[in-house]
Structure formats: C-alpha cells, structure tokens
Amino acid sequence: MNRLADRVTGPVLAPRDKGYDEERAGWQTARRHRPDLVVGATGPADVQAAVTYAQEHGLPVGVQGTGHASAVGPAEGGVLITTARMSAVRVDADAGTAWVAAGTRWDQVIDRTAPAGLAPLSGSAPRVGAVSYTLGGGLALLSRSFGYAADHVRGLDVVTADGRLRHVTQDSDPDLFWALRGGRDNFGVVTGMEIDLMPVATLFGGVLIFPVEKAAEVFGTYLQWAATVPEAMNSSIALISLPDVPAIPEPMRGRHTVHVRIACAAGAPGAGERLVAPLRAIGPMLDTLGELAYADAGSIYNDPVAPGAVESGTAMLGELDATAVRTVLDLAGPHAPVPHIVELRHLGGRLAHPPAVANAIGNRDARYLLNVISRLERADLTQIRPAHARMFEAIGPWSTGGRFLNFMNGENAAAQVRSAYNPTDHRRLTALKAVHDPANVFRLNHNIPPGRGPVRD
After folding, report:
1. What's the first-to-final CA gap in the chain, in angstroms?
2. 111 CB neighbour count, 10 Å cutoff
3. Residue 173: left (phi > 0), alpha (psi -120 to 50), or beta?
C-alpha cells in the first residue's frame, strides 16, 4: 500500500483508514463494494498506478463513477478506483463536440454546452456520471431522436490492463473502440471521452400525472399513441407508488399515480402540443408540459438526488397489448403488497438503427424497456425480490429476452450480462477480452470473461 500511495496523487485508503467509507460510498447504498484498497484518482497517472499495482499483486479492479453510477457489487477485496476528482469539460462549439473527464456528471457538461445552444445525449438524471453512463449505452432523453449516447463517441482515453494510457478511436484500434462502447469497464478504465453534441437548446417537455383510477385508460391510450409518434417524440409511462411524506404535494401524497414523461425534440412551432393532445384529452391531475431549456430537462423525471437503497430490475420488451397492460397493473397497482415504480420507456426510432460507427450495444429491436424499482426503506428485500420475480415472469410473453446494462443494478449473473448483447457480439467481446485483459483484472463489474477462439465469428 505504501508503495502505491507514493505513486498516486489522490488518497489511497484501506478499510482501517479514516475516510475509507466515504471514498467507497456510491449513490446506491444497498450494495457497497469493500475493497482492499480504494484509490481516489485525480488523473490518468493515478489510474495507471492503481491498475499496475493491481496487476503486480494479482488483485481485481473495479471503477466507481459519480452520481447515480456506482460500482457493481457488493464484492470483497481488490482495488476500487473512484473518479469523482477527475471532473473537467472542454467544449468545441464549432466542431459540435466536447471532451469529458471520467468523473464528470452530465449536469456539469450541460452547464458548459448550453450557452452554445448545444446539448449532450444525457439521460433523465442530470447528476449521473457521463462516462460510465455512455460506456453502458446511454439511454438519453432524446435517444429516439438521435440514438444511444454510445453511438456518438468519437474517441476514448483508456488505461488498459497492462497499465498503458491509450487514445482509442475507430482509426487507431477499431476492435477495442467497438468493445469499449457497450462493454463498459470490462476493457479498461476510461479517463476521458470525446463526444458529439446535438444542436438542441430547447425542447417541448414535462410530465402529465393521472390518478390511478385512470391507469388502464392512460396505459392503453399511451401504447396506441406511442405506435404512431415520430422520432422527435421521446416518452415513458410509469405507475408510481408515492410515499406518504410531506415532500410529496397533495393530492398525490401516499397514492398511486400514473406519470407520462415527454421530451420532444425541436420541430415546427406547436408540433409537441399537437402530438400530446390525445394524452391530455384523458384529463391529467397535473400538466407541466411546455417549452423547456435543455438545461432544465432534469425536471421532467425529477429523479432523486440523494443516495438511496434501491432494488431494481429491467427487461427489454417487444410490442405490447391490452393483456400486457393488465398484467402490469394487476401486479403493481394499489393492492400490491410491495410499493414499486414500474416504468415503460418507449424505444425504437434512431435506437433501432445501427450507428455510423458500429459498437457493442445490443437489443436494438426492442420496442420498450421495462424498469421495476423498489426502495428498501418501504419494503424488505425478502419481499421485494419475489415481487420483482413475479413481475418479470408475468411479462415474459412480451419480453425479447434482453436486458439493458445500465439498469441492471447489481445483477451480475453471467446469463444476465450476456442478455445485454446480441449473441455474436457477446462472443466477440469475450474474444477481445482475452486479447486485452486475459487475466480478467477488470472483473468487479457486469463481467465479460475472457473467451477462446477468434475475435470475429
């Protein structure tokens, strides 16, 4: 440890050291990795030193991002690299690009890009770590309009398992560049990325909130509506069990409500208003839809900022029908013993198209992403896990069999990780893992193990 501390500018902490618990803490408090050492990296050189030390001592490496991003776990031992101190953004407005350091959150990127009338492909939670989000795919507020965030990466600075810092692009190393965009932290520790920015300054967005008594009508109308909207329209629908606490305004406090979230890319004046008319006709109890500056788009989902203990699961779905709606409402309505957030995010649009430069993101044929979330302070884990299992089993007839890596929240079984990729792509990833990380040093994650055979099928 002393040898590593001499080579690292940031803190190097063992379990007995003051500050260890704070350094290893992430947004997800239900799962905390307990490493032998946690390294608070201040830059690429610290990351190189930590990876080299782990290699020399036969230790696995994990990476903990910022904001909602957390290390997968819990795992015992190894070296955990935290990136929160590596926060920097450089914007090239003329080129429409930005360079983002490993520990930067999306809200920090947005603050720098908004004055130029540009926006990154950030998600519903502005405080999520930009790099980890992007490497896992990056399902953005405007992804139906522009594709996954990973589709718009131009270059990556990455420390690979041999301790080298490399600048990786489609031209310099197409195989590694392909694998990093979708393989997350299985192939190295990304210390910075160059991304495309979108010419978006404002959008039409907000939320429609309905009482649970209208849930069947809202869900049914939403599915019919979603099948007709253009790529400019991005949306989700969620059945939410709200706690009975003062922070929740009346009349929603302690109730189940249905939330339809809208983010419509700029178009002809009034286009967003016309598109949402069928949903508004149902009669929401709250309607916040209107023109928003992209910098204020986090208000659409209003995701929690404070760390919390949650259990969640995800599944990619095909086309849905009235029976699918009844299935969800029967298991997650007001009579359900476990409070949930059950959300359907509308996919398709540009998400279904292969990007200009191929990457490892799978399941592009899915039409919806189902996410089920329960907070542990509202139910015991012994109740939550069986309830989630019932939900995913019941929705099975509509499932494509895939999952989305960024929403897996600690699920780390090999079959679950494989399901995030197309089968041929997963085989290629395991072959590339054998080339770039044959000892599987980067394994404290949603792991892709080293495989055998050729890199390409």
Report:
1. 43
2. 13
3. beta
Dist CA 313 CA 377 (whole Å):
17
Q: What kind and span of H or E run contains 329?
A: helix 322-332
Spatial distance between the Cα atoms of 123 and 80, rounded to a whole number of angstroms: 25
Q: Which of 331, 339, 325 is CA-nearest to residue 376?
A: 339
Provide the greatest CA pair distance for the chain.
67
Q: Give the pairing type, strands 341-346 and 233-241.
A: antiparallel
Q: Rounded to 5 degrees, what are φ and ψ at 248?
A: -90, 125
Alpha helices for 156-309 (secondary structure H):
174-183, 215-226, 271-275, 277-280
Cα four-point dihedral sign 395, 420, 451, 133:
negative
DSSP 28: B
- Laid out side by side, the sheet with 97-101 consists of 89-92, 97-101, 189-196, 153-159, 165-168
- Rounded (5°) CA angle 294-296-297: 65
CA distance 339 to 311: 11
Among the listed residues 437, 447, 454, the one whose alpha carbon sits nearest the alpha carbon of residue 187: 437
pLDDT tens-place string over residues 118-145: 999 999 999 999 999 999 999 999 999 9
List the structure tokens of 219. Answer: 């869900």
CA distances from 247 to 132, 192, 244 (A): 30, 37, 9
Read off φ and ψ for residue 145, nearest 5 degrees. Answer: -85, -30
CA 265 to chain centre: 20
Q: How far apart are CA 288 and CA 181, in angstroms?
A: 35
State pTM to two decimals: 0.95
**28-37, 279-288, 326-335, range with the lowest pLDDT:** 28-37
Instruction: Express each pLDDT in 353-362 by its tens digit.
Output: 999 999 999 9
Q: Is 199 exposed, middle or buried (0-12, 13-18, 19+ CB in 10 A)?
A: exposed
